[in-house]
TrEMBL record:
Lineage summary: Bacteria, Bacillati, Actinomycetota, Actinomycetes, Kitasatosporales
Record's protein name: Pyruvate dehydrogenase E1 component
CDD domains reported for this sequence: TPP_E1_EcPDC_like
Cofactor(s) required, per the database record: thiamine diphosphate
The encoding gene: aceE
Family annotation (InterPro entries): PDC_E1_N, PDH/Transketolase, PDH_E1, PDH_E1_M, THDP-binding, Transketo_C/PFOR_II, Transketolase-like_C_2, Transketolase_N
Organism, as annotated: Streptomyces carpaticus
Domain Pyruvate dehydrogenase E1 component middle: start-end pairs: 487-710
Length: 892
């Protein structure tokens, strides 16, 4: 009879077997063990053999999944260095005040979350007491560690800041009540509380993605010689439900590939997401373990508390481990809320070996194990996991810590599906919590309508201990600190070249900005601080000339011979490379940008990130990250290249951006410009460097749209700098055949200026109409100024919007044209005193020539002429027959 083992297909069958008989003996030995001692014993031997092989350097692939037990056995835990009883009291105060803050806020209906921090309290406290470096750490001055706090745990961080004296009761009572100016934001938010929070994290998925690229950027700074960040560690605290977000796991392979051992993920596996179990019918811990191991991470599972030690030692048959592996998460959540009889029947009653084990356990032991004993609730086990994480070299680490959501909040909260939405405790529940935490709060303080905050006193042993530990670790955390470093102004040479224009040479504005940045990277003082970022489209944007000079960053350098090594513009990777070429990932590139854009605060080192991408794939694809960038007070230049809906010949609707400036205008931190000419690009970039890196640096970032359509670049007219920056100036005045000739104002942004200039010529030569041409460099900045003026008017100030003043006295109707949907130029319509109308590219894009696409959308020069004549006819300045004649003449 054929051997069933030999009938299985195996990749190893491709390779020569030097001793098939020996191979067969190993298989037979396993069969014998399984027959004599059971499959559990056979599997144990295999795993032990694999572990031994890996420990001795034998090349054996790692297992993707291990048993549902702790990675670090109790006997291997290091000695706990702190006063565990003292730290337990500190944690108890924090638990109380976090719950009290949210409950007191419930009077005003502002919401809040209690259960998340209740489950994760020890995960944070152990880090704060023993691991998280502050900004004054001797080995990481000005940087410390970077803490990405889980958003829903913010009440616990506020409670700790209250305990150490950084916040007062008044602050806590203004939780989620910020309009008065002294409130606490609901979640980690640097823009609202800039001295405390460094990273906004509650837009789930962005935190883990940003943490990976922050750790990578720390290495980038070190490898480029900007700053020694070798002692800085990035800690990202995440929820197991948050790992469903695609951004949460999008860059795991990058972290593993580059060996980012300066990074630790701590995933709070309380098995619950917002509405119920994370993996009701499966096991989220096992799924995450396999996912992280496959990506090259070191995985530490901290699942069970010390109460489980006796159970695991008694599991001689493997029945307990097997049962732990097969019980789905939702069922284990149920065990945390059911009585011992149910657990005995449902968990231990499934097979004789388990029933025998269960019979040897007391009711109290079973209740402790299944109701509360989790690895994430015991500081010794958390400490052991963190110590192993920071000592592990060569790969990032993820700590999968199992907890009970709502731990210590009582039976009404613990492990309940609805606990994420439960915003308050009753006074009776607070009494129960007080007794459980052994806090010295008398009943008299719990007799009113309002639960009190509790504090042991500024000179109490708890506060002194807390402050001494933080001082030893480098000061308070989390904390954000800005050391203002003013960058010198660049020389005028690069900008003067743009002011001169290109003569008859045609140059696309995409190439203009790339060449400008390349020139600025040569600046002696500030050149090394530029961080060019591109998602695998460098050649599309003409950046290949930067490859050999600046180099592409890689922590491995270049371990191969480039196929184009003999060419002038060859592909070059280097450990100290300046360019971040991220592959096909706008999300990763944007995370890079954020890390660089906030380095002035995170590390006290201002960097100038320059992120260029297909404009269609920027704001549309990663707009949430750009919002987080504004939250984090980032600074730098974001460039939407190959912009517009009609400039990409043949690419079609999926590449044709007609709306990114509109999306960008929704971000209060974004200064959005759509320059038409090279000199406009120069003026905007120069002013951006001043505003973001000068002595009065502002927390803004720039979004510039540039085009791939080569055009002659004119010289800069006199005195237009203010108009360029404010958003509008008259580029030229139309000549009129007579003083009585009709006149129209043509306004355009970006590449549309060229269509308008041609329309200006046609109107004068063929229809006797004079047209003034205006360059609208920023529709959104014009609107922002106008909104500010409106607000000032309501306060009694006499302020007129810039756009109104600029156009005042201009004769005739105003026609605005752009390569965007009409809603972009229509942002300013209400502040234009003249008759105002617009043309744009509303609808889906399409594949065709530029000329055909513009005729399709009605924005080509001839369509502009007809639209201008139509507005003049409505005003009675030309006859209606003229409009019909023009339409017929142009075939419209």
């Amino acid at each position: 009879m054929p051997d069933p083992v030999r009938l299985r297909l195996s990749a190893l069958d491709q390779l020569p077997d030097r001793d098939p008989e020996e191979t067969a003996e190993w298989g037979a030995s396993l069969d014998a063990v399984a027959a004599a001692a059971g499959t559990h014993r056979a599997g144990q031997l295999v795993r032990r053999t694999v572990e031994h092989a890996q420990a001795t350097g034998i090349d054996v692939p790692s297992l993707l999944e291990t048993d549902y037990i702790n990675s670090i056995p109790t006997g291997a835990e290091p000695e706990f260095p702190g006063d565990e009883a003292m730290e337990a009291r500190i944690t108890a105060w924090n638990r109380w005040n976090a719950a009290a803050m949210v409950t007191r806020g419930a009077r005003y209906g502002v919401g809040g979350h209690i259960a998340t921090f209740a489950s994760a309290a020890w995960l944070y406290e152990t880090g704060f007491q023993h691991f998280f470096r502050g900004k004054d750490a001797a080995d990481a001055p000005g940087s410390g560690d970077q803490l990405f706090i889980q958003g829903h745990a913010s009440p616990g961080i506020y409670a700790r800041a209250f305990l150490d004296g950084r916040l007062t009761e008044a602050h806590l009572d203004n939780f989620r009540q910020e309009s008065g100016g002294a409130g606490l934001p609901s979640y980690p938010h640097p823009r609202r509380l800039p001295w405390l929070w460094e990273f906004p994290t509650v837009s789930m998925g962005i935190g883990p993605l940003s943490a990976i690229y922050q750790a990578r950027f720390n290495r980038y700074l070190e490898n480029r010689g900007i700053k020694d960040t070798s002692a800085s560690h990035v800690w990202a605290f995440l929820g197991d439900g948050e790992m469903d977000e695609p951004e949460s796991t999008a860059a795991l392979a990058l972290a593993g590939r580059e060996g980012l051992d300066n990074l630790t993920f701590v995933i709070n596996c309380n098995l619950q997401r917002l509405d119920g179990p994370v993996r009701a019918n499966f096991k989220i811990v096992q799924e995450l373990e396999a996912q992280f191991r496959a990506a090259g991470w070191n995985v530490i599972k901290t699942l069970w508390g010390s109460a489980w030690d006796d159970l695991l030692r008694a599991d001689t048959t493997g029945a307990l481990v097997r049962r732990l592996r097969e019980v789905p998460d939702a069922q284990f959540q149920t065990y945390a809320t059911r009585d011992v009889a149910y657990i005995r029947d449902h968990f231990f009653g499934t097979e004789p070996a388990l029933a025998q084990l269960g019979a040897s356990l007391s009711d109290a032991k079973i209740a402790e194990c299944f109701h509360t004993s989790r690895g994430g609730h015991e500081p010794r086990k958390v400490y052991a996991a963190y110590r192993a994480a920071v000592e592990f070299k060569g790969a990032p680490t993820v700590v999968l810590a199992q907890t009970v959501k709502g731990h210590t909040l009582g039976d009404g909260f613990q492990s309940r599906n609805a606990n994420h939405q439960m915003k308050k405790l009753s006074l009776e529940q607070f009494r129960t919590m007080r007794d459980l935490l052994e806090l010295p709060i008398p009943d008299s303080e719990l007799s009113g309508d309002l639960v009190p905050y509790a504090h042991p006193g500024p000179d109490s042993p708890e506060v002194r201990y807390l402050q001494e530990r933080r001082a030893a670790l480098g000061g308070p955390a989390p904390a954000r600190r800005v050391h203002q470093v003013v960058l010198p102004e660049p020389s005028e040479k690069a900008f003067k070249a743009l002011e001169k224009g290109s003569g008859s040479q045609e140059v696309a504005t995409t190439m203009v900005i790339v060449r400008l940045v390349k020139d600025l990277m040569r600046e002696k003082e500030s050149g090394r601080r530029w961080v060019p970022i591109v998602p695998d489209e460098a050649r599309t944007f003409g950046m290949e000339s930067m490859f050999p000079s600046a180099g592409i960053y890689s922590p491995l350098g270049q371990t191969y011979e480039s196929v184009d090594r003999d060419q002038l513009l060859h592909y070059k990777e280097a450990v100290n490379g300046q360019i971040l070429n991220e592959g096909i990932t706008e999300a990763g590139s944007m995370a890079d940008f954020t890390a660089a854009a906030t380095s002035y605060a995170t590390h006290g080192e201002p960097m100038i990130p320059f992120y260029i991408f297909y404009s269609m794939f920027g704001w549309q694809r990663t707009g949430d990250q750009m919002w987080a960038l504004g939250d984090q007070l980032g600074r730098g230049f974001i460039v939407g290249a190959t912009a517009g809906r009609t400039t990409l010949t043949g690419e079609g609707l999926q590449h044709a951006d007609g709306h990114s400036p509109l999306i960008a205008s929704t971000n209060p931190a974004a200064l959005t410009y759509d320059p038409a000419f090279a000199y406009e690009v120069g003026v905007i970039v120069k002013d951006g460097l001043r505003r973001m890196y000068g002595p009065d640096a502002e927390d803004v970032f720039y979004y510039l749209t540039v085009y791939n359509e080569p055009k002659p670049q004119p010289a800069m007219p006199e005195g237009v700098e203010e108009g360029i920056l404010r958003g509008l100036y008259r580029f030229n005045e139309g000549s009129a055949p007579s003083a009585e000739a009709p006149r129209v104002q043509l306004m355009a942004s970006g590449t549309a200026i060229h269509w308008v200039l041609e329309a200006q010529r046609l109107l004068a030569e063929q229809w006797g109409v004079a047209a003034d041409v205006w360059s609208a460099t920023s529709w959104s900045e014009l609107r922002r100024d106008a909104l500010s003026c409106d607000a000032a008017q309501l306060r009694g100030e006499d302020r007129v919007p810039y756009v109104t003043r600029a156009l005042r006295g201009a004769r005739g109707p105003v026609l605005a044209v752009s390569d965007w949907m009409r809603a972009v130029p229509d942002q300013i319509s209400q502040w234009v005193e003249q008759d105002y109308s617009s043309l744009g590219t509303d609808g889906f894009g399409l594949s065709d020539t530029r000329e055909a696409a513009r005729r399709h959308f009605g924005v080509d020069p001839q369509s502009i002429v007809v639209a201008a004549l139509d507005r003049l006819a409505r005003a009675g300045d030309v006859k209606r027959e003229t409009v019909l004649a023009a339409r017929e003449a142009y075939g419209l």
